[in-house]
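Hey, can you fold this one?
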Amino acid sequence: MLAATAAVLAQPLTAQAGFVAEYPAVQSTQAARAREWLMEGRQLDGMAAGLNSWIRMPRRVALRMVECPSSDIRWNQAERAVEICYRMATRLYGIAAEQDSLRRAASGAHLFMTFHGVAHAIIAELNLSVGADVEGAVDELTALMLATAHDGGFPLWILGGVSTIHDADPQWGSWAYATEHGLGPERFRKVACLVYGADAEGFSELRTAGLVPAGARQRCRAAALRSVDVWSPRLGARLR
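Sure. Predicted structure:
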């Protein structure tokens, strides 16, 4: 929806610009196993490619898996890297164990957190003015990416994954994604509403899955339109 309002830049994306997946060497055995598994799946590589087909970044931005003591994501401004902790990935997939449905949910939740980090990167790298409520702006931009950059089933996988993993581990908020980025129920509902409002027909499964309440169509549509009005001038010709 928003992409249709943006002009396309004439210059091609250079090798030095755009998102790229990185898997630096690790020390622990657990992180090494996770690194090998994630590299084989190439999910992060696919996400980088999808982002580069949606937005033009002025410089290279890494989506980087790292060893860190917390289950978190973080935007490393100095190195221009969205850093995703292996500890978060191993905890998520530990919840899922060998259950295929939960493993898919864990994968969706992991991607959602990465999108949140990407939104921080876009705001920082494009020097966007978002006011004092940075996390609220990041939530809106995350919803926009989910709504515009992918097909109808993608938001259900991502948002459904967050909801499913939360239900599987009620302690979610105490261990993962719970620093200043913490996504409480109210913020999660706002993101789901914005995605649904962008295309209520295309994303109707969000409502049937209970991620958006019945009767919220008009409210979510109005919220999504307001969000587009805000983000169109901010992103402008950066969108493809």
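The radius of gyration is 17 Å. Let me know if you want another pass with a different chain boundary.
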